[in-house]
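ESCALATION

Customer reports they have been waiting on this structure for their group meeting. Please prioritize. Original submission:
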Amino acid sequence: MSYTRYGGDPYWKRAKADGLGVGGTPYKKGERVFFYPRTGAIYAGDAAQRASAEFDELATLEG
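Update from on-call: job pushed to the front of the queue and completed.
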């Protein structure tokens, strides 16, 4: 994971409240979710793992 990080990059965080992620995946307060700060999109569960992997892959191609 060697790439330049920017202010609007998505990141893992703990959910502050229960909610629904992109695609309708439910998550509970305290669960790890993948958050896109520019859009406010939250990915939970398997979708979060896929979103994180996709972002890492694309970020390394930026190089």
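Sent to customer with the following note: The longest strand covers residues 32-36.
Escalation resolved.
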